[in-house]
Amino acid sequence: MPAPSLLTSLESLLVKEFRTLQTLLALTREERVALTAYDCETLLTLVEQKEILLDELGRMDHQRQTTFHELMQMARQRFPFPDPADLLAALDATAADRIARLQEGMTVVSAKIRELTPGNQVLAASAMERLDATQTFLLRLFQPPPAYQPAYYAPALQPAITFDLDHRT
Questions:
Q1: 1.10.287, 1.20.58, 3.40.1350, 3.30.460: which CATH number matches 3-143?
Q2: Residue 85 near residue 100, CB atoms below 8 Å
Q3: Burial annotation 106-134 (CB, 10 A radius, 16+ → b, else e)
Q4: What is the largest CA-CA distance in the chain?
Q5: Rounded Cα gap, residues 54 and 67, in angstroms
Q6: In this structure, are residues 133 and 45 in contact, taking their beta carbons and an 8 Å threshold?
Q7: For residues 81 and 88, what is the distance between their CA atoms, to the nearest angstrom?
Q8: pLDDT in tens, 62-116
Q9: Distance (Å, rounded) from C-alpha 47 to C-alpha 35?
Q10: Which CA distances in Å does 31 have to 49, 71, 117?
Q11: Which of 75, 77, 101, 117 shows the smallest number of beta carbons within 10 Å?
């Protein structure tokens, strides 16, 4: 594949990866809303969608690395630059600028996702603790006291004998 088509391919892969990261950010924000609303069904749907996107990001990352490696191998035959950024600029300055802006945008979106994720983890952990405490409380309501024995095992109680003034003569 010639260098211009590899460069175009790299740029289109970065655009797809950037869009996927933006979608992942939107899902992470929706996940926060679902966690605060205790909406389990929506949360399960969002988690499934996020897993699919993360798989896609892994595939795109592999494709991008492969394409970038091929581009670097081809470009190093013509330009003896050791730095990949210099190689891209030597091939096509405008494309290199677009790629740099895409990478910067991906870094910003990834940072936002990294900021939201720990908060979502804390919300999920607190919801789990709340669920566990509620379950424990409800189970204690319906469990018999520790010294409880069913009536057919307990000895019959005699009425207590009390003496008041009439009985003392």
A1: 1.20.58
A2: yes
A3: beebeebbeeeeeebeebeeeeeeeeeee
A4: 126
A5: 20
A6: no
A7: 10
A8: 999 999 888 878 777 776 665 666 666 666 778 878 888 999 999 999 999 999 9
A9: 11
A10: 11, 38, 9
A11: 77
